[in-house]
Amino acid sequence: MVRHLVGPAYVNDPSTVVTEKGLNLMADINLLSRLANLWQGFVSLWLTDVEKRHPEIAYQNAIDSMITKYDKLKTATAAILRRREDINARLSEAEKELEAVNADLNTALATNQDNLAVVLIQKKNALDASIKELSGEMEQARTDAEDAKGSLLQVKNEIQKLKDEKDRMLAQMASAQARVKIQNQLEGLSVDAEVRALDNVREHIKNTVAQAKMGQELRESDLDVQLAKLRQGSGTVTARQQLEEIKRARAAQANPAGKSM
User: Fold this and answer.
1) How far apart are CA 48 and CA 75, in angstroms?
2) pLDDT single digits (tens) 77-116
3) What is the DSSP string of 167-213?
4) Per-domain residue ranges for the chain?
5) What does the alpha-carbon distance between residue 138 and residue 82 come to, in Å, rounded to a whole number?
6) Within a 10 A sphere around the Cβ of 94, how many other Cβ atoms?
7) Measured between alpha carbons, how far is 50 from 61 in angstroms, rounded to an integer?
8) CATH architecture of residue range(s) 61-190
9) What is the pTM assigned to this prediction?
10) How far is residue 245 from each of residues 39, 57, 74, 121, 233, measured CA to CA in Å?
């Protein structure tokens, strides 16, 4: 089924006819694009969180990326140096050939060999032009080589700086984490296994002491225990009374004996 989009401009223009299947396809594409962007956002946030918790990963990834760049630049620099050497070899060969042509030209002029001299002059002119062109290329090759070597050394220095920064920052991170751990322990906020074990031991001791006190209090409140204490106290009172009677009897016996003497 074919439908026309609403609007006079679209109805009058046959090129604006869109099928329902095409509209559905466009909607699906837009939905997939939005889902892809959403997933990419989640992954980016997750990677950011991982890098914060493990900064050594972020530093190592940066170092690896710089090393990859350094390797590619080193390959490009080698190609530039090779081109410079090739141009230099061609220039040296052309200069040697020009020197030989000049010698031959002098000999031809000295022996009045005009036809040969004309050919040698043409060859000399071609060599002069070639040497001039090669000299320009050689100058550019030298400049390119120096720039490439400078860039190579710069990237190498950046890699070393990044390695030094990694060691320094990770050391600072470890020191800060140790300080936070000590501060948490001092403030009673540590959740380390050792500290939690000690807390459990302390709690167990307190509970044991409380149970012992509770047992003692329950025992003292028991009627049988109270009765036993009462009987024990009564026995002590009776024994003291008996002791007093014995002392009085002995004293009475001792006094008559003293009078008779």
Assistant:
1) 33
2) 999 999 999 999 999 999 999 999 999 999 999 999 989 9
3) HHHHHHHHHHHHHHHHHHHHTT----HHHHHHHHHHHHHHHHHHHHH
4) 1-53, 61-190, 195-221, 225-261
5) 12
6) 20
7) 13
8) Orthogonal Bundle (1.10)
9) 0.48
10) 104, 97, 120, 164, 19
